[in-house]
Specification:
CATH superfamily: RNA polymerase sigma factor, region 2, helix turn helix motif
Number of strands: 0
Low-confidence stretches: 73-86
Helix content: 55-70%
Radius of gyration: 15 Å
Shape: elongated
Number of helices: 4
CATH topology: Rna Polymerase Sigma Factor, Chain: A
CATH class: Mainly Alpha
Number of domains: 1
Structural class: mainly alpha
CATH architecture: Orthogonal Bundle
Distance between the termini: 56 Å
Amino acid sequence: MALNYDERFVNRLIELQPRLRAFIRSLVPFKQDADDVVQETNLVLCRKAGEYIEGSNFAAWAVASGSFPGHGTSTVAGPRSTGVSR
């Protein structure tokens, strides 16, 4: 049975998870925050699935397309957010 585009995309995304998680963990110091970023990134990538060009480097596309929503540079580079405004 031939896979359609959506199934191939999902399979690539599943295969990428360990590398994507490791990449995000290298940027986000707290595991719980990193897990949130991975989940949000997966959602962004699924929404942008139609932008992926079949045959191109999926991992490179995913990293370039995953904008890590809700996690600005202060969260990635700085202390864990407490939700309290300064």
